Amino acid sequence: MVRRRSILTLPLALAAGHAAAGEMLRTAAQSGMNLKFNVNGPPGFCVDYIQALQRVDSGLLFKGLDEALPLTRIESDLAAERIDLFFALMKTRERVARFGFVETPALYNVRHRVAVRADDAVNVQGFDDIRALGGNGIILATRATGCESFLAEQPGLTVDAGATDDLRNLRKLLSGRGRFFYHADVTLRHCIEAEGAQARVRILPAVFHADSQLLAHAPGLAPERLARVVAAMRTLELSGAAARLRTAYGLT
After folding, report:
1. Does 38 score more than 50 pLDDT?
2. Do domains 2-107+213-248 and 109-210 have the same CATH topology?
3. Exposure letters 133-160 (e unless 16+ CB within 10 A, then b)
4. How far is CA 182 from CA 10, 76, 116, in A?
5. pLDDT grade, residue 40 (50/70/90)?
6. What is the pLDDT of residues 67-90, one digit of tens each?
7. How many CB atoms are closer than 10 A to CB 33?
8. pLDDT band at residue 39, thresholds of 50, 70 and 90?
9. Sign of CA dihedral 34, 35, 36, 37
C-alpha cells in the first residue's frame, strides 16, 4: 500500500474547512496509474478533477485519496460498498453486474490501440489481421483492466494477461515476449514516456475500439448523494473547465 500525501494537501485542507457543511464520500487512488493519480510531479487528472469539483461545490468532501490501491481491490471495495465512488473506470459487462456508472458526463474518452517494437515492421488494421498472424500475434493486456475484458470478448485471439502492471507489459513487449501491447492510447503514451522507450516502441494508428472513462459508484449509494456529485460534474462541463483540464493532460 502506497501513501500519497504529497498530492492531496489541497483537497484534504478544503475538506477540513468545509466539514460542517459537507458530506463525506469515500473513494480511493489507483496505484500504478500516474495519469490519474501521480506520486511525483503533476497530481494526475483525477486528483485535479476532484479538486475542480470541490471548487464548484465546497461541500463535496472526499476521503481515501491518501492511499493508492490496486484496481482489483478498488473494484472489490466498490462492489462491497466499502467506498462510494471511484474516478474513473471503463464500463464492462462484468463491472456493471457489480456496481453502477454515471455515463454522462464522461470524465474523458479513450481509443484502444496497440504498441509494437520500433524494429517490427508489422502493420495491422484490425483484429482479423492479428488473427491471421497465428502464434506470431500474441497480444499483451494488463489484467483486470477494461481493455482485457474487451479482448476476452473477441474470438480467435492469443492474449497474455498475466501482468498486473502496465510497465511490466511494456517491458515484456521490448523483450519479445509478446508482439502487441493492447491498451488505451493515452495509457500507452504515458507508459512509453515513463519508461523512456520512445525510440524503441511505436503505437500503430489503427483504432480497435473507442470507450470512455466514467465515474463508478457503489450499488447502494443514495441517489441524492450521487446527484450532488453529478451536478458538479455537469457544471464543470458547461463552464468549459472539464475540457480545459482534459486538454492539459492530452485527453479528449
Report:
1. yes
2. yes
3. eeeebbbbbbebbbbbbbbeeeeebbbb
4. 35, 24, 9
5. low
6. 899 999 999 999 999 999 999 999
7. 21
8. low
9. positive
Q: Please state, in angstroms and as integers, the Cα–Cα distance from residue 226 to each residue in 52, 78, 169, 215, 245, following that order.
A: 17, 14, 36, 10, 22
Q: Are 37 and 107 in contact (CB under 8 A)?
A: no
Residue 17 has pLDDT above 90, yes or no: no
pLDDT of residue 223: 97
CATH entry, 2-107+213-248, from 2.60.120.580, 1.10.10.10, 3.40.50.9100, 3.40.190.10: 3.40.190.10
Could you tell me the pTM of the whole model?
A: 0.87
Q: Where are the domains of the chain?
A: 2-107+213-248, 109-210
Per-residue pLDDT band for 239 (boundaries 50, 70, 90) equals very high
Domain 109-210, CATH number (from 3.40.190.10, 3.30.420.380, 3.50.50.60, 3.40.50.11030)? 3.40.190.10
